[in-house]
Amino acid sequence: METKILKTVILKIILPDDSCQRLILSEGLPASIEGLINEVKQQCGLKGSFKLQFMDSLFGNEFFNLTSVSEVQDKGTLKVIDFSKPTTTHSAESSVSNPLQGSNPPSTDDSFLSSGSVDTDILSSSESSSSRFSWPAVFHVPRFSYDAELKLQQAAFPYIQSGTVLIPDPKLKSAILDALVQEIVQYKVYVSDKEMDQVARSLIQKHPCLTEKGSSTGYGGWKTSLKYKLSNYRTHLRKLGCPEVTVNSLKNKPAGKRTAAFGVKKAKRAEVNFCPMYPPEESEESLEAMQKSLLLDVKKKNNREVVKYKMEHTFAHRRHEVVRDAPMVKDFMAKWPALFDVTE
To answer: Where is this region: Disordered (predicted)?
Structure first.
């Protein structure tokens, strides 16, 4: 009886964020569109509902809805069309209630402000240079330098044919790690073990030729290298004065507890303005002076615009106080009374 030889099919997948990824079907095309969608979900790390479109060469490479797997060709291009509805984001002013309202307000005698608490200020564009994005559900591996992509492309074919993995030279490995770290710091500078695992796994899913045969997961070494690379990058950021990193420097920790692992302050609830930079033209002293003038401004009538401007301008200063000092609520209320006004 003749054995049917399955042909490996390679497809280009255009993801919802317009990035691209290879889809390798070592057992050929699935029998149904549902099976193909499941392969896309698994290899590209996608969730939710979506449909696929294929690039039709008969109509100038335009995309058409995929109605049959027979329309898919080897080395063809598929596009993911996300069905999920966009999330409606409410502004901070409309969604935050007055903390002084409510039937049973918490006692302020022994309460402290958490460094992860949400500040209700709206940060102006000039002050948001250090803002970050929330960590994504699916980490998308960025495009590497031209020569790095060329090496990976050349290594992909031997991997598909015989499973031969690529052992990257130091230059290639450094280029990959540098690009991944730059992508990571768009979200946060302190990454959990689970998140780092997600990054390393995404790398192997996009470039299977980088799989490590000696690792149980296939990416254990990449995960470890990423941790060291990110740690070294934080050292670089600390020298540049990045507040998210300098707040954890040894000199800012209590005497007798000045170790790297003690009391690391980092975003824990997806805060995108956890510890922002001061406005370029301001310093801690000038913002402290503005805070003192605010104490008088809030007592004046018809002075809302001035108060609003100064509150926006001192946002970074307040965040530094909360993160660095964790003041008691009653002290913070006394220093920043405008923050607890219903209009804020």
So the answer is: 88-115
